[in-house]
Write a structure and sequence with these properties.
By secondary structure, the protein is an alpha+beta fold. Helices cover 59% and strands 13% of the residues. It has 14 helices and nine strands. The protein is globular, with a radius of gyration of 29 Å.
Length: 375
């Protein structure tokens, strides 16, 4: 009996201990959760907005993700402080913009969001197409991909982007006249060319007429359409121009000219093997390929023109059959860099003017702030 009684007592004691331990863990978790929502600063130029420790951690994670390719694995306290100041500056400027009636629509944010990816991919994509493409290439959702590569989910990234667009709009409005006067000089352009002359080259290139028919749900019909389009082109290559302006282009198929360079990077962008690129450059002008089937489509191409590799002078065009010269290209890039620098300096100056005790209340400073930045 005593043994059984002791056993029952032990069971009750262990259960109570387990419950107490669980409550303790819950309490500790609650403290950490509350810490994450501690206010670090309140911006109140137009309305009261609190910057919390959690928001700072999210932005710091975003910044760290950008630094990781350079071998930086953690941020210092001073760097985290600077990120906090950047968050304050951002809210000051967005509130100042809102006070003057400036805003950015959700469609403008989405357009800017997709434009970033479209530039990387070399083609315009919808959000649904981007989701599918990322799923195919990485196995991740768009949200998961963004979190892995930026530290932010889709909603957080778009909110961040929206603030950047509003800030740009506000600063551009205030500094428009000065900004337009910032431009690269002739000496800067020529010096940049001399310092980077070896990079201004054409690789061997050729111009293709490329037709792609998405497989969709009916591969048989898609193959038949691709075959019919190829037969039309082989019979009369002038049909290529008609295919490009047809209402079906962009709906049933995609047809257009494409300039291809003989590089591994170009092969990767086209999802072609390097061997296929080498084989392609061995074809004569006028060659029409057979129908090729990929995982998602059927396609064929025709070789229209070839361009030999060469060093480029300032007066040469950057890309075959375009009008932008090397001089123009350098001027545009240098001017853009100088304007970006002037813009960044303007943002800092405007933020400093807005950063007054009436507009910003810093809740944590000195040692109290440093303790919170130790994560």
């Amino acid at each position: 009996m005593r043994v059984r009684a002791f056993k029952n007592f032990a069971e009750v004691f262990m259960k109570r201990l387990a419950i107490g331990f669980a409550l303790l863990l819950s309490a500790v978790a609650g403290v950490f959760a509350q810490n994450d929502f501690q206010p670090l600063a309140v911006v109140k130029l137009n309305k009261s907005e609190t910057i919390t420790l959690k928001q700072l951690k999210t932005r710091a994670n975003f910044v760290l993700t950008q630094y990781k390719p350079y071998g930086i694995k953690e941020l210092t306290s001073d760097q985290k402080k600077q990120i906090l100041e950047n968050l304050i500056d951002e809210k000051l400027i967005t509130q100042a913009a809102a006070k003057e009636g400036m805003s950015v629509t959700d469609s403008q944010v989405t357009s800017a969001f997709l434009n970033t990816f479209s530039q990387q991919l070399g083609t315009s994509v919808t959000e649904a197409q981007l989701e599918d493409l990322i799923k195919q290439r990485t196995g991740l959702t768009l949200d998961g991909y963004l979190k892995e590569n930026s530290g932010m989910g889709t909603a957080e990234y778009k909110a961040y982007l929206k603030n950047q667009l509003i800030a740009q709009q506000y600063v551009y409005t205030k500094k428009q006249n000065e900004l337009q006067k910032v431009a690269a000089t002739d000496d800067e352009i020529r010096n940049a060319y001399e310092m980077n002359k070896s990079t201004f080259v054409w690789n061997d290139m050729l111009k293709l007429f490329l037709v792609i028919v998405p497989a969709g749900d009916d591969k048989v019909a898609a193959r038949a359409l691709a075959t019919d389009l190829r037969n039309q082109y082989v019979k009369d290559n002038k049909q290529g121009s008609k295919m490009k302006v047809s209402e079906d282009n962009g709906k049933k198929y995609r047809a257009g000219d494409l300039t291809v360079a003989k590089t591994a990077q170009q092969a990767q962008q086209l999802s072609w093997s390097y061997d296929k690129i080498i084989e392609l450059f061995g074809k004569d002008i006028g060659f029409v390929s057979e129908i090729t089937e990929t995982d998602t489509d059927f396609q064929f191409y025709a070789v229209l023109k070839k361009f030999d590799a060469k060093m480029l002078a300032l007066s040469d065009v950057v890309q075959p059959e375009t009008t932008v010269t090397v001089y123009d290209y350098i001027k545009q890039n240098l001017t853009s860099q100088k304007q970006s620098q002037y813009f960044a300096e303007s943002v800092q100056k405007i933020a400093e003017e807005l950063d007054t005790p009436e507009n910003v209340e810093r809740k944590k400073t000195g040692d109290d702030l440093v303790k919170l930045l130790n994560w």
